[in-house]
Amino acid sequence: MRLFGRNIDVKDFLFKYGYFFVVLAVIVFFSLSAPHFLDYANINSLFHAASPMLIVATGMAFVVMTGKLDISLGSIAYLSTCIGALIMKDMGVAPSIAFLLVIVVGAVLGAINGFIVVFLKVNPLITTLGTLTAFRGIGLILTQSFEIRMPTVVRAFGTARFNGIFLDVWLAVAIMVVLHLLHKHSVYGRQVTALGNGEDICRRLGIRVELVTFLTFVLAGTLASIGGIISMAQIGESTTFLGKGIEFTAIAAIVLGGISLFGGEGRILPGVLVGVFTLELIRNGLNHLGANPYLYEFVNGGIIYVAMSADALKSRLRGLVLLVSDEDV
């Protein structure tokens, strides 16, 4: 196929850009079905609702690009914010100090995951499956499963705007831009991608695999706690449902954004942004249509299945291309 005077491989073109046509079709469908879907206020609210996920998914993207998984990020968000909520309520600590502590706790919980994976050599999926339950259990014990209402200043932050756009959207985008630059233009970022393409090769090249892996889990935990802070501010209280299931939605979002679950491939921008935007777009559109709220879970599951199937197919095709190239050599 020729496009703009260039020969284009149809299969490669569909793998790279076909998804954007699907997103465009979804936007057109909802805009025609729901009269106010493309209103500025709705789009602004859409990104407002998506801002915690944007941050958490960015941390997940770094872990996945190393060829690993962390399914405890929702529980890290919950436990770290529980601690922050408790010290504000029981000790009268200022929200700014409490939020700094929340971020430190998130980093420590991420470090626990990293220590178990790197030094105790436990499979990342098994490790984070265990800490997913353990961290949330600790949070439920600390709060006795009660909701903790946030101070007025925290609730105000959750609805604050700058130039008409919610403040948490600015924060989420700023974090994503910084981490995109970290991934694309730093030694650490290049090493993250390299790990996903083979740890043995990285060791031969002198890359400190264990340190990079450990730091990636710490980064993911830190970002999960920041996402938890934003969720808590938006809700106005610390609830037992905070962060529940967010890790699985984050996995779906990054795969939709072109980050391979097999590691070694993907970009923070536009990848994570596009993936999260798509899922929130569908949820928002279904709400506008008055659909059954449980329908989104079904649709979300279907999206995850299709995205992961496409990722697996793309990986197999890439493997076949490499095999053929080796044989030609």
Structure report:
Helices cover 75% and strands 4% of the residues. Residues 321-326 have low confidence and may be disordered. It has helices at residues 10-33, 40-65, 73-90, 95-118, 124-143, 152-159, 167-185, 187-196, 199-204, 209-235, 246-256, 268-288, 295-328; strands at residues 2-3, 6-7, 148-149, 161-162, 165-166, 237-238. It is mainly alpha-helical and 329 residues long. It has two domains: 1-30, no CATH class; 38-321, ABC transporter involved in vitamin B12 uptake, BtuC (Orthogonal Bundle). The chain is globular, with a radius of gyration of 21 Å. It has a two-stranded antiparallel ribbon with strand order 1-2. It starts with a strand and ends with a helix.
Topology (elements, then pairings):
Layout: E1 2-3, E2 6-7, H1 10-33, H2 40-65, H3 73-90, H4 95-118, H5 124-143, E3 148-149, H6 152-159, E4 161-162, E5 165-166, H7 167-185, H8 187-196, H9 199-204, H10 209-235, E6 237-238, H11 246-256, H12 268-288, H13 295-328
Antiparallel strand pairs: 1-2, 3-6, 4-5
Helix pairs in contact: 1-12, 2-7, 2-8, 2-10, 2-11, 2-12, 3-4, 3-5, 3-10, 4-5, 4-10, 6-10, 7-8, 8-10, 11-12, 11-13
Count the beta strands: 6
Q: What percentage of the residues does DSSP assign to strands (E)?
A: under 5%
Indicate the radius of gyration in whole angstroms: 21 Å
Give the overall form: globular
- The CATH top-level class label of the largest domain: Mainly Alpha
Can you tell me the residue ranges where pLDDT is under 50 for at least 5 consecutive residues?
Answer: 321-326
- The helicity comes to over 70%
Q: How is the biggest beta sheet arranged?
A: 2 strands, antiparallel
Trace the largest sheet across and list its strands. 1-2
Which class do the helix and strand fractions yield?
Answer: mainly alpha
Contiguous helical run count: 13
Mean of pLDDT? 89
Number of folding domains? 2
Order of helices and strands: EEHHHHHEHEEHHHHEHHH
Q: In whole angstroms, how far apart are the ends?
A: 28 Å
Under CATH, the topology of the largest domain can be stated as ABC transporter involved in vitamin B12 uptake, BtuC
